[in-house]
Amino acid sequence: MAGRANIPTNSSALIAIIADEDTVTGFLLAGVGNVDLRKKTNYLIVDNKTTVKQIEDAFKEFTSREDIAIVLISQYVANMIRFLVDGYNKPVPAILEIPSKDHPYDPAHDSVLSRVKYLFSAESVASDRR
Amino acid sequence: MAAATEELQFLGSIPGPEGAGEVDGAVAEEGRPRGGDNEEILRFMDSVDGYLLLMDSLSSALRQGWLDLASARHSMGPSRVSSTLFDHKEQSAATKLQVVDRDGLKPSEPKPHFALSKWSLQEECHSTYDVSERAFTEPKMRHRGSVTTPENGNYESANTTASSTGADASNHVQRARSKALSVFGGLVSPKLRTAQLSFETALDLIVELANSRSNMLASFSQLKE
């Protein structure tokens, strides 16, 4: 049908992770780590030596791979490439911003909630009522 | 929920019920049923609320996992719990996702649904489920402690098969978990095992979050129109 984004049914898709070392280690313990024939992994460990370009490249790669269904990205890392994350609007892979050890989750910066926030604007309603 | 609907009406994006009060059956001026709009708004608000609650649960699960990981690192030593130990040889993920496209409210609206397949258990789970399903859908009463009657014979054998298949699945999961832990050596801290369970819980929540996100965006698309 015209204009419909095709979501191929996939019975063995991966979860990609762009996060700090402890978060990646934890999820690898849970069995999500994958290394293919070309030694490409489905995770990127972000530390103080990781450049914004590396994060951008990893994000673009994970969101273009057909074998990845969810991309987990620490919210503080997503803030470094906010323009890329907010500009992404495909249904699959789903981008989920997760908290990290030193940066708790902030719904105000979540790209999904930012997209739908204009329906709320509780603050503007409350200020009108005063 | 009524307060939330009222707030949305203040924004002017959703017409209020007052304007359609004269028409019984609540058909909007544009010809759309009013009840349908309210229902969609409620669905959207529910999905946003669910998303935020799940995110809160995920934060808790992750915090527990980080704490256990830090404890394991303290007892095993920093060099034994480190990303430098990760094997870069070819390996397939043991925990994967299934993605199915469920049509949104309109045919042009994609709505993916995600399901988690932990520790490559998909085939084992299906076989366990099938046997268990047959065992419990037989129209027979369960007789606790009574194993000698012929009517219970079939139930007993199905139940034994189900439990043995369940035991196989459990053994498989334990082996898979041990394999994931073996990256950090033969003997690992119990805290590393509990960290593994915490992150597995986090994975379950993440899949629910992905589905909640999918529902939220589908409802939002419907409301925008």
Topology of this structure?
The complex is a heterodimer of chains A (130) and B (225).
Chain A: E1 10-19, H1 21-29, E2 43-45, H2 52-64, E3 68-74, H3 75-80, H4 82-87, E4 94-98, H5 111-116, H6 122-129
Parallel strand pairs in A: 1-2, 1-3, 3-4
Chain B: H1 2-10, H2 34-76, E1 96-101, E2 112-117, H3 122-137, H4 150-181, H5 190-224
Antiparallel strand pairs in B: 1-2
Helix pairs in contact in B: 2-5, 3-4
Overall tally of domains of chain A: 1
Strand order of the largest sheet of chain A: 2-1-3-4
Termini Cα gap of chain A: 49 Å
Radius of gyration of chain A: 17 Å
How many strands of chain A? 4
**Overall SS class of chain B:** mainly alpha
Instruction: Please name the fourth-level CATH homologous superfamily of chain A.
Output: ATPase, V1 complex, subunit F
What is the name of the CATH topology of chain A?
A: Rossmann fold
Order of helices and strands of chain B: HHEEHHH
Helical content band of chain A: 25-40%
Number of helices of chain A: 6
Q: Tell me the total number of β-strands of chain B.
A: 2
Largest interface: A-B, 58 and 70 residues
- Quaternary status: heterodimer
Shape, principal axes of CA atoms of chain B: elongated
Strand content of chain A: 15-25%
Low-confidence stretches of chain A: 124-130
- The unreliable regions of chain B are 1-31, 123-152
- Please give the largest β-sheet of chain B: 2 strands, antiparallel
GO molecular function, one term (chain B): unfolded protein binding
Pfam families (chain B): Vma22_CCDC115
Protein name (chain B): Vacuolar ATPase assembly protein VMA22
InterPro entries (chain B): Vma22/CCDC115
Task: Please explain how this structure is put together.
The complex is a heterodimer of chains A (130) and B (225). Chain A is an alpha/beta fold and 130 residues long. Chain A has one domain: ATPase, V1 complex, subunit F (Rossmann fold, 3-Layer(aba) Sandwich), CATH 3.40.50. In chain A, 37% of the residues lie in helices and 19% in strands. The termini of chain A are far apart. In chain A, 40% of the residues are buried. Chain B has helices at 2-10, 34-76, 122-137, 150-181, 190-224; strands at 96-101, 112-117. In chain B, helix 2 runs antiparallel to helix 5 and helix 3 (122-137) packs antiparallel against helix 4 (150-181). Classes of the chains: A alpha/beta (130), B mainly alpha (225). Strand 1 of chain A pairs antiparallel with strand 1 (96-101) of chain B. Chain A: V-ATPase is a heteromultimeric enzyme made up of two complexes: the ATP-hydrolytic V1 complex and the proton translocation V0 complex. Chain A: GO terms for molecular function: proton-transporting ATPase activity, rotational mechanism. Chain A: This is V-type proton ATPase subunit F.
